[in-house]
Write a structure and sequence with these properties.
Blueprint (H helix, E strand, L loop, with lengths): L1 H17 L13 E6 L14 E6 L5 E6 L4 E5 L2 H6 L1 E2 L4 E4 L10 E4 L13 E2 L4 E3 L6 E3 L5 E4 L7 E6 L4 E5 L1
Antiparallel strand pairs: 1-5, 1-13, 2-3, 2-6, 3-4, 6-7, 7-12, 8-9, 9-10, 10-11, 12-13
Length: 173
């Protein structure tokens, strides 16, 4: 009896200590409400698997800068309604489709490095679908759920994405 109790106590302690860090699948601490029509350029780049774009609000919130994996940027004006009702998370958004996908799943991540957890720690993307932080040197895989592939810490902050039949993506908490 005493041996069984000791074994149960050991297993309970092991299970509790083995799972000290857990992460929510979707980020809720930074508000996000954004919609984008992926049938128009420059947003249409995300219609291909393995392609991601970075959407960063300008300081005056009158427009956003959209940057592709190749580094090509375009400025897109926001309507008055968009300026009042849209939020972009901590530092902006990364939106796209992972390579291993059925062509219908879209992912949205925060542009900020979760290890640094500040707006100034904006990630830089490369053509292979990796995002790296210039401050802490962590590297994340956009095609694999935003997991960390180099460095330490948690995966990228991820937001929910729903799609309308008309080609509009809604990114939200």
């Amino acid at each position: 009896m005493r041996r069984t109790f000791s074994l149960l106590l050991f297993l309970a302690t092991f299970l509790l200590m083995g799972c000290t860090e857990s992460y929510q699948e979707f980020c809720t601490q930074y508000p996000v409400t954004y919609s984008v029509d992926i049938t128009y350029a420059p947003f249409n780049q995300v219609a291909s698997m393995g392609q991601f774009i970075c959407i960063r609000p300008k300081s005056n919130h009158a427009s956003v800068t959209v940057t592709s994996l190749t580094g090509k940027s375009a400025e897109v004006a926001l309507s008055e309604t968009e300026r009042r009702s849209f939020s972009f998370g901590l530092a902006g958004l990364i939106i796209g489709q992972p390579y291993f996908n059925d062509g219908t799943a879209y992912y949205a991540y925060d542009l900020a490095c979760p290890a640094c957890d500040r707006a100034a720690a904006r990630l830089e993307m490369d053509e292979q679908g990796k995002a790296s932080c210039p401050l802490c040197d962590n590297v994340y895989d956009l095609n694999n759920g935003g997991i960390i592939v180099s460095g330490s810490g948690r995966p990228l902050y991820r937001y929910r994405v729903t799609q309308s039949s008309a080609g509009t993506l809604f990114v939200h908490n």
